[in-house]
Amino acid sequence: MKPSTALLSCLFLMGLGVFIAVCTVIYVVHGEFLNAVVTLGGAVLCFGFVIPFFTIIPGKVAPRVNVDEGGTTFWPDRSVEMPLYVGLLGAVATCAMYTIFAPAGMVTIPVPHYMRYSIPFTSGVIMVWGGSILWRYFRRGSTKYLRLTPSGFELEENWRTASGQWDQVKDVADESSDKKRARSGPIVFVMSDDSTPTIAANGMTPNGEALRELVRFYWEHPESRDELTDGGAVERLARSMA
After folding, report:
1. 20 alpha-carbon distance from chain centroid
2. CB neighbours of 65 closer than 8 A, spacing ≥ 6?
3. Section 165-174 average pLDDT
4. Of these four, 52, 103, 136, 176, which has the most CB atoms within 10 Å of its CB?
5. For the segment 71-82, what is each residue's pLDDT rounded down to a tens digit?
6. In the chain, at which residue ranges do the beta strands (DSSP E only) sit?
7. What confidence score (pLDDT) does residue 3 get?
8. How confident is the model at residue 180 (pLDDT cuts 50, 70, 90)?
9. Contact at 8 Å (CB) between 86 and 48?
10. β pairing state of 198-200 and 186-191
11. pLDDT higher than threshold 60 for residue 110
12. Which residues contact 7 (CB under 8 A, 6 or more apart)?
């Protein structure tokens, strides 16, 4: 995502979040507490997706890292992930309440008359979809991860998983040929079969650059891959980000 696009997205979500928060206060003042809870979830969703921008745009992110005898695993900065968890949880809770209570007339938030059935249905779909994503995140312990070992790599993001050996990698790029799957700060593994496993790394290092260069280094220097099992990779990354 370009900085200008990120900034516009941030401003839009912030404005929408403020508007919904004001609606929440109005509903509380009027004693319409169920409406207030529903709109509160919407505000939480907006702010949950805004807060990470304050870390990502200035480039203040740093990955969480674990080193074991098999390799080194990188996860996004916790300050990026936690607001997303909370925001998505707010969305799921709001959609669940709207799906359950709106058809019974207990939620009285004004909506166009012709959408009185479609909105609860859509809310139900979002509830199931968001709940499944949350379950996957909690089971994985993160929104995504990248693991590097002396023999290859493994990555998982959203519903996608990929792995490969270093000798199967033709290049480590910063842009995928698949424009429909563009990522922010991507690390693109260009494989010998022309597939391009990709992970967005802007939540790990600024614009993903330092981590991408680390991956490129171990792809180009097999003699140094033992660093992936003894903490040397973490030190190398820290030096590049200093």
Report:
1. 23
2. 72, 73, 74, 75, 234, 237
3. 96
4. 52
5. 999 999 999 999
6. 64-67, 72-75, 144-148, 152-157, 160-165, 169-173, 186-191, 198-200
7. 64
8. low
9. yes
10. antiparallel
11. yes
12. 53, 57
Instruction: Give me the count of residues in the chain.
Output: 242
144-155: burial string, b at 16+ Cβ within 10 Å, e else:
bbbbbbeebbbb
Which domains, ranges and CATH numbers included, belong to the chain? 3-50+78-140 (no CATH), 144-241 (2.30.29)
Q: Strand (E) positions, 32-140?
A: 64-67, 72-75
- Cβ 91 vs Cβ 45: under 8 Å: yes
pLDDT in tens, 189-214: 999 999 999 999 999 999 999 999 99
Q: Phi/psi zone of residue 72: left (φ > 0), alpha (ψ -120 to 50 degrees), beta? A: beta
Mean pLDDT throughout 128-149? 92
Taking the whole predicted model, whether its pTM rises above 0.90 is answered as no
Beta bridge partners of 163: 154
Residue 136 CB contacts under 8 Å (≥ 6 apart), including other chains? 158, 159
Cβ–Cβ < 8 Å for 84, 56: no
Which residue has tokens 């992936």?
228
Report the distance separating Cα 12 and Cα 148, nearest Å: 37
